[in-house]
Amino acid sequence: MKNEDSTQKWLFLSNFGLKLLAFLFMTLDHVGLMLEYYYLSPGSPVVILLRGLGRLAMPLFAFIIYEGVTHTRSFKKYALRLGIMALFISGVYALLAYIPNPFFSQDFTQGGNIFIDLLLGAVGVYCLMQANWRIKMLALLPACYAILSFAITTFEYNTGTLVYWLPFYLRTQYGWFSVLLIMSFYLARLIKDFYLSVIARDMGVDVEVLKLSSFDMRATNLLNMSAVVVISLCLYALSWFGNMPFLPYQWLALFSGALLLCYSGKRGYNKPWFEYGAYLYYPLHLAIIALVFYLLTL
User: Fold this and answer.
1) How many structural domains are present in the chain?
2) pTM of this prediction?
């Protein structure tokens, strides 16, 4: 009982707690981006610190999306909310890019649409969860779209030639990184289930006994952390072959995996206002930060 209690005390982050941390890191990242845009150089210690902390946000959001898909009672409604936000953000970015405005230049908005990342990752996980292998294979479509987005953005970054048939606001923001990361959490669960079945067979117990113990949560969290580390290192390894349209410290995302070790598997606070407000936080906080920095320059 003592060991069980000792294990449980480390599992202090609920889904709600992970969301708050993801929002915090994302906000710090965007504050650093605005400081870089208006006042400081990319190599400024303040910019590096804020944007470095911002690298921890995407893996947390990826995990939250995976958890959302696996626990939602209606995937259609879940995907619809993500799709509506993706369309809204794409429309706003298109306006900012092509209509003169006092806030951003066109170069500032060429980062892709994060809600496209989240939607594609959610669809990929949903396809993988299905029993029909033909539907499972459809998970290749969001993965290929993310890889295509990465390839086009990398091409533009290295050649300076714009690709108009797939504009930036219809691409993923993190290339293949975010989409494959979301889908890799499903693979981590398969590995965990297989591992538990082997342990249960060797121990001569029913696998459900292990799934009801803290051992299941520890194994799940460890493999989820491993997924973050592996995908982050794969992205970093690609940088050896040439310049990529990502921050040079994007590999710092792997450290967010340590936070997943503290995940309790519990939902936590989830009132309707927060559930739906979470979707609005992204555009609202960007608008507020942009307005504040713009007013400071007047």
Assistant:
1) 1
2) 0.93
